[in-house]
Recover the amino acids of this structure.
């Protein structure tokens, strides 16, 4: 989901989400890592969301056991903005 095109979040809400992200609150355990094509692997996270990542980035990250879930961040932003 690309919220940049459909939503303009209030700056204070974005700052809260950034702080939470930096604190690791959106980190999720990697359940599976599967080759998607020559350049990308698909990570399935404990929350059920998936992310495609460049293999070279994953190698730099030294095969991460957790990953920040952008879908969870987006859902949190949507929820908080609706309050």
């Amino acid at each position: 989901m690309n919220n940049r095109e459909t939503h303009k979040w209030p700056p204070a809400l974005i700052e809260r989400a950034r702080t939470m992200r930096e604190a690791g609150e959106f980190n999720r355990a990697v359940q599976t890592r599967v080759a998607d094509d020559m350049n990308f692997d698909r990570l399935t996270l404990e929350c059920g969301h998936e992310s495609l990542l460049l293999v070279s980035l994953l190698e730099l990250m030294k095969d991460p056991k957790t990953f920040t879930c952008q879908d969870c961040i987006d859902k949190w932003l949507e929820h908080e903005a609706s309050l």
About this structure: Residues 41 and 52 are 6 Å apart (CA to CA). The first strand starts at residue 27 and ends at 35. The chain has one domain: 3-82.
